[in-house]
């Protein structure tokens, strides 16, 4: 029996508006959505992006001549509710295509997906398929084949351009699944470039006061500091950073939340000098067909939907994931899951985030995480983050728009 909270959540299920002119049964895309709880910031963005894609694809005639509908339930950001939701989507609603979002949500969905031999298009989940090795799993976030170290790879490469080269590093992050994975990768990259670990600890996810942590890092006197954090942690670390006066030669890391317009706006010029990661920024090296039109549509809906006003992080890649599913279905001419999976494995897909090619485990064949540095921010105007030169790309080389500026102390006032 489904948990009573799942049953309550099912009342929130939504489908597209009826289109009487469609002659065949609709194609249903099913997924678990984080519409409430701690991951709602991400889940709501994903939903808006999928609704835009649904509108666009139906305006072009749908898939295989059939209307596309979205079928989703609120999982309340609770992984325990996810298995029941996917069981209902597959066994009762008989959805045709599947979507998932996030490491914590995707992992508990996998047993049901595998049991039903369905293709799963995932988003923003790190190293999920390292455990399952499922051939019908695909992940739109560009971690590449070595997901755990791709977020920090460019950070450490940029650090080693400093003169003199740094000798030591402090690693810190939340004791939670994503942060642990990010820190594991940072550890490997620190070793790769020959840096000494002078601080390497995690903190409980419920931490409120980050001042003692930052003081301990300051006492260790590292040349660079790498942080693996979630949005609430990121804000707490940034507040403690200036309070304690920690000014290593380089600071930043896998700090989730810096990508969000709300945090960019709140901290404004306090972000100057920080080196973080992004998936898309408005630099001249990242001009992809269709991206600006999509962002204009998304941003026009953002306020009413109470979602991130910029939408650079989750929405474009969610839309691109749906584009890939649609292109694969159209290419094989059916909803045959095996044929769809084979097509996704073999083809290169043209999307609003550029060309995407998948490797054997369903991750991008080549990683494309952007390492960026915040520079030239004045005040708290959000619009400045839409301009080139504010989020300068340091890595990867094919998208590089500037070089690391250091030391970090030069950016603090």
What can you see in these coordinates?
This protein has 413 residues and is α/β, with parallel strands linked by helices. Helices cover 38% and strands 18% of the residues. The protein is built from 13 helices and 14 strands. It has helices spanning 4-10, 40-59, 82-91, 103-115, 129-132, 147-159, 177-193, 211-220, 231-244, 261-267, 291-305, 314-332, 337-346; strands spanning 27-33, 68-74, 97-101, 120-123, 137-139, 168-174, 196-203, 224-229, 250-255, 275-278, 348-351, 354-357, 370-374, 391-395. Strands 2-1-3-4-5 form a five-stranded parallel beta sheet, with helices on both faces. Strands 7-6-8-9 form a four-stranded parallel beta sheet, with helices on both faces. A three-stranded antiparallel beta sheet has the order 10-13-14, covered by helices on one side. Helix 4 links the parallel strand 3 (97-101) and strand 4. The longest helix is centred in the first third of the chain and has 20 residues, at 40-59. The protein is globular. It starts with a helix and ends in an 18-residue tail after the last strand. Mean pLDDT is 93; it is low at 1-20.
Brief digest:
The chain is an alpha/beta fold. The protein has helices at 4-10, 40-59, 82-91, 103-115, 129-132, 147-159, 177-193, 211-220, 231-244, 261-267, 291-305, 314-332, 337-346, and strands at residues 27-33, 68-74, 97-101, 120-123, 137-139, 168-174, 196-203, 224-229, 250-255, 275-278, 348-351, 354-357, 370-374, 391-395. It has a five-stranded parallel β-sheet with strand order 2-1-3-4-5, sandwiched between helices. A four-stranded parallel β-sheet has the order 7-6-8-9, with helices on both faces.
């Amino acid at each position: 029996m489904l948990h009573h909270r799942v049953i309550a959540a099912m009342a929130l299920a939504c489908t597209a508006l009826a289109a009487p002119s469609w002659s065949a049964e609709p194609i249903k895309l099913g997924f678990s959505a984080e519409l409430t709880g701690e991951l709602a910031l991400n889940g709501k963005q994903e939903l808006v992006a999928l609704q835009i894609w649904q509108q666009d694809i139906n305006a072009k005639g749908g898939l295989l001549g059939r209307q596309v509908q979205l079928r989703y339930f609120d999982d309340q950001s609770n992984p325990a509710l996810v298995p029941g939701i996917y069981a209902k989507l597959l066994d009762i609603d008989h959805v045709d295509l599947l979507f998932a979002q996030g490491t914590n949500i995707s992992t508990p969905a996998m047993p049901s997906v595998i049991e039903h031999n369905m293709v799963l298009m995932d988003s923003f989940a790190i190293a999920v398929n390292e455990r399952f090795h499922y051939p019908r799993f695909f992940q739109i976030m560009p971690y590449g084949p070595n997901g755990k170290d791709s977020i920090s790879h460019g950070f450490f490469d940029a650090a080693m351009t400093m003169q003199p080269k740094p000798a030591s590093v402090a690693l810190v992050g939340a004791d939670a699944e994503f942060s642990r994975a990010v820190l594991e990768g940072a550890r490997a990259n620190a070793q790769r470039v020959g840096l000494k670990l002078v601080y390497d600890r995690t903190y409980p996810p419920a931490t409120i006061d980050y001042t003692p942590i930052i003081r301990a890092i300051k006492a260790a006197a590292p040349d660079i500091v790498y942080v693996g954090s979630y949005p609430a942690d990121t804000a707490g670390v940034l507040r403690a950073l200036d309070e304690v006066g920690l000014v290593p030669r380089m600071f930043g890391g896998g700090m989730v939340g810096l990508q969000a317009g709300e945090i960019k706006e709140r901290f404004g010029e306090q972000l100057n000098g920080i080196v973080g990661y992004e998936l898309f920024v408005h630099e001249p090296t990242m001009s992809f067909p269709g991206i600006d039109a999509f962002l204009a549509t998304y941003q026009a809906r953002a306020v009413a939907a109470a979602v991130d006003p910029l939408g650079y992080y989750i929405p474009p890649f969610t839309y691109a994931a749906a584009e890939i599913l649609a292109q694969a279905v159209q290419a094989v001419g059916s909803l045959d899951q095996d044929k769809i999976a084979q097509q996704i494995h073999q083809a290169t897909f043209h999307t609003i985030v550029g060309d995407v090619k998948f490797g054997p485990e369903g991750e991008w064949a080549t990683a494309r995480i952007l390492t960026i540095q915040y520079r030239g921010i004045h005040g708290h105007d959000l619009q400045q983050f839409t301009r080139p030169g504010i989020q300068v790309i340091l890595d990867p080389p094919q998208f590089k728009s500037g070089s690391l500026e250091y030391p970090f102390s030069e950016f603090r006032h």
